[in-house]
Each structure stands twice: as C-alpha cells, then as structure tokens.
Amino acid sequence: LKWNIQRDSAANKLRDFLKWADDIREDMGYQGQVSKNKFTAFFVKNSVYWARGMLLLTFFLNIFMLATWEAPSYFWSILPDTPSYYNPVIYAVGALHLILSLFVAITFFIANLKNFTLPSAITYLAKKFTGKEDEDTGPSIEKHNELNIFGLATLYHIALVGFSAASLPLKGYFYCFHLLHIVVNNDTLTRVLQSVIRPGRQLIYVTILAIFIIYIYAVASFALLRIFFNRDDGLFCETLGQCYATSIRFGLLATLGDVIPGHSFTFQAAGLRTIFDLTFFIVITTIGLNIVFGLIVDSFSALRDEKNAALEDMSSVCFMCSIFSHEFEKHAKGFEHHVKNDHNMWAYLFYFIFLHRLEQNDMTSTEYYVFNKIKKQDIDFFPTNKALCLESIETGSEEQLDQLQEMVARLVHRIEREEDDERRKKARDEQRKWEKKAKQSMSGHRGSLRDTPDDVLRRGSSVAFRPSPSLPEAAHSSSGEDE
Q1: What is the dihedral of CA 328, 334, 335, 336, to 10 degrees?
Q2: Cβ atoms of residues 209 and 202 within 8 Å
Q3: Are the C-beta atoms of residues 247 and 219 closer than 8 Å to each other?
Q4: How far is 138 from 183, CA to CA, in rounded Å?
Q5: How sure is the predictor about 138, in pLDDT bands with cuts at 50, 70 and 90?
Q6: Which of 152, 61, 144, 163 is nearest to 102 (CA)?
Q7: Are 119 and 146 in contact (CB under 8 A)?
Q8: Of 330, 314, 331, which is closest to residue 322 (Cα–Cα)?
Q9: Lowest-pLDDT range, 169-173, 366-370, 417-421?
Q10: What global pTM score does this model have?
Q11: pLDDT confidence tier of residue 177, bands split at 50, 70 and 90
C-alpha cells in the first residue's frame, strides 16, 4: 500500500487510500475465513516455509547436477551420463521438491482465490450468451489485488509443479526453472522485471518493425547475394525462408556484412555491397537495438524515480494531513512522533475496518458520519492541512496577525488625523492671509478718498438709529472709524 498508492496530489492519495482500505478489508475477511479452516490454514500459515524449502532444494539439485553431469556417449541423446548414485538422490530429493512445489502452488491459489478474475473478452462472451450484456451493472471498480486467472502469476505457479514433475524422469533438466522463484517477494528484482514488462507493447512494436526490415534485406540477399552464402559456415540461402532465418540469426547477433563473404568482381558490386552492409548496420544494429535498450533503461529509470518520489513523500510529508515534516520538527514533538501517534495511517485503516464490522444502530453520530463518508468515497472528514499539535501555533499566529492589523489601523487613523489637522491649519493660515490682505486693501482705499457732506450726514443718520450708544459716543466712534 505505501509504495503503490497514488501520490500525485493529497486528494488523490486519500481517495486511493480509501480504495485500498476496502480491498484490504475484504482480503482480511477472506483470510479470516481461510484461517478458520484447518486444511487451508495449514498451507497459508506455512507458505514461507514451503517457498524457502523449495528454493533450498532447488539450489542443492542444481549444484548436484553441475558436479555430476557428463556429456552423453550417444551424440543425439539429451540425457547426460551420471554416476550410479545419481538416480537415487535425484528421485528422493526430487520427490520432496515436487511436494514443496505443489504446496507453493496450492498456497497461491488458496490465498488468491477471491481475487481471480476472468479476462474482459471472456466476461463479455459470457454475458452475451447469457443475455445479460444489456444490463447496467454500474461502473466497474478495478481492485488493486485483482489477478487474471490466465495471467503470468497463475501460469508460473502451474509451471512450478509441471517442471518439477517433468524433471524426475529427465534427470533434473527443468530444476533450473525453479531458480526464478528468487524473484518472488523481492522488491529489487521485481522492479527489474517490471522495467522489461512495462514497455512490453513498445518492445513488441519495435521487434515487429525490425523483423519486417530484416525481411527486406533477406529478399535482397536472396536475389543478389545468394551465391556468397556458405553452408559450411551455417549460412543457408537455398530458399527465401532459409535466407530469412539466416538473416535474422546473424543480423541480430552481429551484422550480415561480417558473416557474408565480401568477394566481388567489379568496383560497382563492391560499392553496392558497401551500401547494403552499412545500411543494415545503421538501421538494425545501431538504431534498432539502441531503441530497445533505451526503452528498457527509461522504464527502469521511471520505476526508480517513482520509488524515490514515494520515499521522499513518506519521509517529508504526513500521509493524512499533508503537512510538511519541518512544521512538526519546529513546533511539535517531531515528525516521527506525529505519524506514529497523531496521524497513524494504520490506525485510520483499522478504524475503517472497525466501522464496517459495527452495526449502524450501535454507532455514535461521529462514527455514522465517517461511515457514510467512506461509503461515498468522500474525503472531507480527513484532517487535510490540520493537526491538533499545531493548533496552538496557528492560534498564536492568528492573534499576532490580529494585533498587527489593529496597530496598522491605529497608525492609519493617526496619519489621517494629522493630515486633516495639517489641512485645517493651512486653511486657517490662508484665511488669515486673505483677511490681512483684505484689511490692507480696505484701509488704503479709504485713506485715498475724502469725505463729502453727504457722507457725513449719511454716517450721522445711521448712527442716530442705534439704540444703545448716545449721540456723542456715536460721533466719537464714527470719528474713530473715519480715522
């Protein structure tokens, strides 16, 4: 689960985790049923011992064969000459090897019986014959632990038993096949094989193209170079089929130019032969084989990058909350403590299994809420970007932010008030200047004009109508104003 889960984003990682949780829960339920049966439990619980015992016997048998086999006296015989003690040993150890191989195969089929699926073509034909092809069964959900009943894993375990049984009468010829079992449950070797299997379609296309190109050169060789093929050197070209087989054999192992003699009687023939040999070397040997090697190397590099990316994600990001490890190292008890105690992914998985085993009537409101979210494949209940050990830090940061905003608001208000005071001060200064200029202009204008008798009478009449001051005081004030 940890190495094969999708990690392209936090949401997809949690969604895939829910799918894996369902598959693991179903598999655990099936394994529980298997363990209750004494017959099936005997095979499944001891599966490690069966595999290791078979591998040890395989090593012993192959080393024994290396030490005792000799070339047969009869040329066409495939069975080697062996000492007199060879057959008793090979039959005794081979019988035990056959039993362990059979146990390994039985364990595989028992453990994965629930995960076997038929190929899509067979499923379609079955629905067609039963008349259920038009029924809408909803979208098919692909499970992570599905196994094709005709897949490589199934055929391999059948071959384990078949080759072990065939090795008994053939003096152990097929025990070398069982050495491949070392790949099983070995992550490094499995990835090496995946680097060849993953680009399988591209490799098939490149191989087909190379076969077609070699066929073109075989036709040219049959037409123009047939006389240079020597049977004594293994070069057969009496028919087009023989010429094609020879071209494939020597063309892929080396080049046709190296094995076909280059005798020519004219310079023109030598030039054509040069073009033939160089184009075959460039197209097949150089470009074609390098394309095959490049596909395998790129696939292996991609698998290595995926593993490194998964390892980096596991060591630097919390699986459940997607918060980086440095946050917990800085503000909490450390990243390791967090992923083991606060957000343990296995604790979540066991909680999901517990909810599916619990009756809905016995659930609390929280358990019922989470159970419904799991059924809908909804990830809203996961603590994405949240952690209790970081809440105090987040609260303190929020309080500091609020204080900072308040200080900024007071500073802005103070600046605005000072700007308003400055504007009012400027307005008062401008008003005083204007009043001063107005008084100066009024005093200059009145000093330049002489009073007429009519002005004096008009000023006196206006003063007479004032109620409070007496006439002498009014005359005195008017004279002061005239001054």
Answers
A1: -160
A2: no
A3: no
A4: 38
A5: very low
A6: 163
A7: no
A8: 314
A9: 417-421
A10: 0.67
A11: very high
The encoded tokens of residue 36 equal 């209750």
Helix (H, G, I), strand (E, B) or coil at 174: coil
Q: With beta carbons less than 8 A apart as the criterion, state whether 345 and 320 touch.
A: yes
Q: Is the dihedral of CA 33, 36, 39, 44 positive or negative?
A: positive
Task: Check: CB of residue 460 under 8 Å from CB of residue 475.
Answer: yes
Distance of alpha carbon 153 from alpha carbon 77, whole angstroms = 33
Q: Would you say 107 and 47 are in contact if contact means Cβ atoms under 8 Å apart?
A: yes
Q: How far apart are the first and last CA of the chain?
A: 109
CA–CA separation, 339 vs 148, rounded Å?
A: 36
For 397, the token pair is: 């940061």
In which residue are the tokens 């078979």 written? 54
d(CA 136, CA 148): 23
185 neighbors 191 (Cβ within 8 angstroms)? no
Q: Which two tokens stand for residue 272?
A: 């054509």
Amino acid (1-letter code) at residue 314? M
Task: Report, in this order, helix, strand and coil percent for the chain, each rounded to 5.
Answer: 75, 0, 25
CB 332 within 8 A of CB 389: yes
Of 324, 329, 330, 321, residue with least CA distance to 348: 321
Q: Which two tokens stand for residue 281?
A: 């070397």
Neighbour tally for 7: CB within 10 Å: 19
The CA radius of gyration of the chain, in Å to the nearest whole number, is 48
Structure tokens at 381: 């209940």
